[in-house]
Amino acid sequence: MAAPSYGLIATFDTTPDLHHAAEKVRDAGYRNWDCITPFPVHGLDKAMGLQRSIVPRISLVGGIIGFCTGTSMIWWTGAVDYQLIVGGKPLFSPMFAFPVSYELTILFTAFATIGGMLFLNGLPMHYHAVLKYEHIRRGMDDQFFIVIETRDPRFNLANTKALLEKAGGKNISELEA
Amino acid sequence: MSSTHAATASSALPSDTSTAAAATKALTVGLVGLAVTALGVAVMPDRHGPVMSYLVGITFCTSILIGMLMLILIHHIVDASWSVVIRRQFEHALTSFKWLFVLFLPLLVLAWVKPGFVWPWMDLAHELHGHGTVGTDILYQKKSGFLNLHMFTGMTLAFFASWVWLSARLRQASFTQDSDGDVKWTFMNRKTAAIGLPIGALTLSFAAIYWVKSLEYHWFSTMYGVWFFANCIRGALAVGVIIMIWLWDRGDFKGVLNTNHSYSIGMLAFAFTVFWAYITFSQYFLIWNANVPEETFWYNLREVNHDGSTNQWWYVGLVLLFGHFFVPFLYLLSYKHKVVHSKIKPIMWWILAVILVDMCYNILPALKDGHGDSLPFLSLNLLWVLTSVVGIGGVCVWSYLKSFPTTKLIPIRDPRITESLTYHE
User: Do B291 and A88 touch (CB under 8 A)?
Assistant: First the structure.
């Protein structure tokens, strides 16, 4: 294949095969690679050496911004921009700023979580190299794949192919970018 | 974790030699605690302090047990799977209800022998600060169909009867299933849960109203039962985590418990932290906003003296705001703090401690001085609170440890046990 290559794809028939192969790829030190499975495989994240997602941190930042936005909005509208005494209450109190701050904490946390998730996983994605692979639909049914990308610093056509073969991968082929 | 767990677990009957010694120790400590509390009642010039502190202790311990009962009922009604491994420990703990009833009896007897000593509305001649007696008080007269000694006694008996009855049914079904493996016990528990949840919700709300809220019978709050429920569940989850880690450290839970169990129970504890804050804040906020004297006086008692100076309860309120909400909330945000045993354990003890402070905050300001101000928080009463909790808690721990070796460690024939042992987020 003369066109630039996206990476190598290997096929596995069972989840244990995939699981052990993933451990081998992980131990070989690859970083830009992925598993394709028809259903969630418990424990595969560990076998792939994946860390916990950083989405919760983005959520936390969103929450803090939401809380501060709510509180400062109530303070600014009530105590600065349009001072009005209602029910003998002070112009500003954290007491009545709290419901709004709390709602905005939840709202902004939700935005940050969904936005952060989409930013990190790159969705929506209209094209992916594996979609050109002729057997890829089996990955939605009864087969499992490992894809190692050429941009991985450790990628080397011959060595990576050998690793996948040793890990039990079948039908190893190159993916067009 | 692998599928060999069920096999390992089925042979694991907890050893009873070590728990027998611990049970005796717990009972001894408990009896000493009760004896010291009784001594306090006998020797203190003002006996109100130790008696009210005893009410704090028994409300605190009962709330944890109610929380466990409610968690088991919720477990069954939603057909939960992950919580099967911890359910058995709650079932063991439920045996304490009958002892809590026995320990509540002195307060009940006191209500008949000296009406008005603990709950002022029981004595119609009780002098109200500045406006007549209870009997001439319109707010009492309107509430007297609900607040009278017969209702109080009947309801208290009904509370304990319901809790003991529900506990006995849940325990019997779950324990029998260990030996015969019949799925009908699971269905029986589901039916118990269907009737038990409304019964539990009503009894815990009324218990909170009669035992605690009626100390200031002028007051109105529609959030009170839910506030109590939030504390019940938080206490039960905290004790649940502590038991889980205790069993892990002993070795019993090795191969049974995995990270996901800790994570799930940690998330529940986190969720109920927010729930408690939501309820407690709403109660305060609605009263603050409406500014009606029949409602605000309850918080005024807990903030200022009659001369306008800040009292100690104001600071206790701040301790609750930060200690009961912000500290556990921010701490439990972290994944690690929910799954690493050495990290989740201290916060669970902390939560138990602040629940106790919350009970003090709700009960002890009913003790007043000559000006109608609440007696300060920092006083000898804290000692009686402590001895009461140690006393009543010791009896509960003894009762739990006595039940503990009588069954398998986990419900090995529960239809969901494999799912629970291999639980994955």
Answer: yes
B281 touches chain A (CB under 8 A): yes
Does the pLDDT value for residue B15 go beyond 60? no
- Nearest Cβ partner for B335 among A42, A52, A95: A52
Looking at the complex, report in whole angstroms how far the Cα of residue A149 sits from the nearest Cα belonging to chain B.
Answer: 29
Which residues in chain B are closer than 8 Å to A95, comparing Cβ atoms?
284-285, 288-289
- What pLDDT score does A176 carry? 86
What DSSP state is assigned to residue B310? Answer: B
Give all strands (DSSP E) within B144-254, no chain letters.
none
Chain B interface includes A99 (CB < 8 A)? yes
Average pLDDT, chain B: 93
Give CA angle at B224 (B223, B230), nearest 5°: 90
**Residue B347 · residue B331 · CB < 8 Å:** yes
Q: What is the pLDDT of residue B16?
A: 57
- Smallest CA-to-CA distance from B75 within B402, B414, B303 is with B414
What is the span of the domain harbouring residue B368?
5-421
pLDDT at A2 over 60: no
* Cβ within 8 Å, pair B285-A95: yes
The pTM score is 0.91
